[in-house]
Amino acid sequence: MALPTNKESDTPPAAVPPKKIRWWPALIILLAAAGAVIWIWLNYGRQRQDKNVAIIMVGFFTFVLLLLWAIFLSRMRWKFRLTVLGTLVGLMLLAKMVFRVHGVTGDFVPILQWRWSRAAWVSPDGHAKPGIAPAGSTELTNDYPQFMGPNRNGIVPQLPLARDWQAQPPERLWRHPVGPGWSGFAVAGNRSITQEQRGENETVNCYDVLSGAPIWSHGDAAHFQSPLAGEGPRATPTIVGNRVYTLGSTGILNCLELETGKPVWSKDTVQDNQGRVNQWGMSCSPLVVDDLVVVEAGGGNNRSLVAYRAATGDFVWGNGNDDAGYSSPFVANLAGARQIVIFNSSSVSAHDPAIGSNLWQYPWPAGQPNVSMPVALPGDRLLVSSGYGVGSELLRIQKDSKERLHADRI
């Protein structure tokens, strides 16, 4: 006897249709990102650097939100979601192995390099390629022995220049690869001296002006590098007589022989003065005044600005407690007083060259790097200026009834 059958139980269950992909969250994320980029470009900040950093941050958060949408809210099949996640992780690991961020441009755009790329100036054994100055070179007389020129004011007097560069275009005499760095050149006679990063060594290098041939190189085991600040030394050497004074990006102050590059003395200004290396590296170009070499160390306990004996490296004086800026000291005669002016991280101050005592101090907005050197003007005036939208002020240095110096905004 056949048992009754249930026709409904014999029918296979209907396949559940896959849910449609939920696209609207991704569309909202993309529209919001586009609107944010447009608003940043039209309204945000005063500098392109601020805009570029903000746009990079928008791009990063947009990527994260889209990834979260794809994995948790998109309704894609889980196999596809995991494939997307694995592919992105793999691409990021591959990019990390293939590329490195070698600093940023002036507009804060990252500079990418192949990880296996090498500097052209390094030989296979990692040392600088040797060279000698050509014999019989013409002796030059237009010296540029320090940062901002002979008088540290950006002026080179009595320098004849062709006025029509189309009729008389400049002629390139030589081209020579150098290591990473931000240092300028100091020139005395036929010798031009700068600082470079060569592998893990921070070097002071001397080249022949007319040929570019390397003459000598001095190296210290120091290496400053960060994704924002880039790589290498910052300060320009100072040449006085037969000596070269340099400050590296980690605070190493060297005195070298001009002819040979052999060290005379060396000091770690950051360690000696309980300072710290700036976010963008130590950038103060040494000032030689009288028999002293003066640099900004940024240390506490009256070790912001310090002076060493130029001949021996012995510590002479220190003064100030402000953090180091990125400017360089210079000598000015203001209100009848000879003084060393320095732009710190949050003030402009002046010091007695002989003993370092503070003559006056004027507060300045912190938060942005103070880089430019103030400009001394006739009438005991001083022009102070900062970038990144901070602006400028004109000060007058004058004495009060007790013969004390003051800086007042005009």
Tell me, rounded to a whole number, the average pLDDT: 89
Distance between the termini: 116 Å
Counted by DSSP, the helix tally is 5
Structural class of the helices, strands and pairings? alpha+beta
Radius of gyration: 30 Å
Give the amount of beta strand, in percent: 25-35%
Tell me about the largest β-sheet: 4 strands, antiparallel
- Strand order within the widest sheet? 3-4-5-6
Give the fraction of residues assigned to helices.
10-25%
Structure overview:
With 410 residues, the chain is α+β, with helices and mostly antiparallel strands. It has three domains: 20-114, no CATH class; 138-150 and 179-285, Thrombin, subunit H, CATH 2.40.10.480; 329-410, Thrombin, subunit H (Beta Barrel), CATH 2.40.10. Helices cover 18% and strands 32% of the residues. It contains five helices and 24 strands. The strands form seven sheets. Strands 3-4-5-6 form a four-stranded antiparallel beta sheet, with no helix packed on it. A four-stranded antiparallel beta sheet has the order 9-10-11-12. Strand 10 and strand 11 form a beta hairpin. Helix 2 (24-43) runs antiparallel to helix 3 (48-73). It is elongated and about 110 Å long.
